[in-house]
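Notebook entry, structure prediction.
Reason for the run: the old model in the group folder had no record of what sequence produced it. Starting over properly, with the input documented here first.
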Amino acid sequence: MDDHLGSEIEHEVAELRVRVAMLERQVRELQGAPTQPVVRPQRPAPTQPPLAPPQPTPPITERPTADPRSAGTERVKRLVEAFSVQTSEAILKWAGVGLVLLAVAFAVGLAIERGWITPTMRIAAASTVSVALFVIGQSIRSRRPVFAETLQGAAFVSGFFTAWGAIPMGVVSGEVGFLAMVGVALAALVASYLLDSPPIAILGLLGGAATPFMIRRGLEDPEFLAVFAALIAVATLVVFAATGWRTLLVGTAITAWSMLALAAGESSAAAVVWSIGIVGAALWMVPLVRAILEENETVRDLPAHRLEEALQPLLKSVPHRFAIAAPLVSLLLAQDVDLSRYEWAAVIGAVAAVFAVAALALNVGRL
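New structure, fully documented this time:
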């Protein structure tokens, strides 16, 4: 306290001295004498900093509620952008691979014309190229997954056409070539599961579906076509049950039902009717069971593929829609089948029972 009082007295004395100096300067100015500048002493800084002024609080504004229509539009916009970018990349890479294959085909054709390459050598070289494409793709999968997937898909395409080309060249018989084409398609399905690649699975599906037509047993043998369609559907649905790829499910339904429609238009034999029933039941039950397992979280989730992620908003509820569409499409394809009232009652009762069990399972999973 004494120190503070002493500092205040010293400051007051200094102020008085300044005032006296100012008065003396004014007197000298009146008398015409030169004046000296007066230096005002600095006030000592306070021992405590002054309190900061209170900050104004920002006004509270209500958060605008999201418009569901704008949210849906934004979701569709993001989907279109993502899908367009991924599709453009895939198209460019597939175009590059296609050009390379065309160049190789031109060089091989020139060598064949000049007799440098025998048919057996051609098939062996094409098989080697297919294996090399797959191995190269696998070696760069960790660094460039998109390009690696393209190379491996091209490997299966090349292998499929190699097996088909061996038949007219006389290297193998028609039965052996047919089995080789089916083997390549099945290998693509297995590889798609191991590599987590829906595009390769779709290539296997398309290759298998094209096999009856390429060996010229499609429309000429509708019973064979129907049975083959059922086998393709069962094989691809096994992969779908293990992976849950909606793109493969939709591709299987379109391919199998198209082949069955062609067969049903040519024949109403028992093989065609049974194939329609098997495909319809498989496309009805397998997605429904998969949906129940997903609701109960009892299936193993695979790493999401970019194609499945891009199409997820469009294909999320596809299994539930197949539960309704599969029986109807099957009845339309088998409309020539004559059933008695008791047989129809059994069919309708079985369908109703399955729907009841599925609805109960889905509701229990949500509790």
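Summary: The radius of gyration is 41 Å.
The old model has been moved to the deprecated folder.
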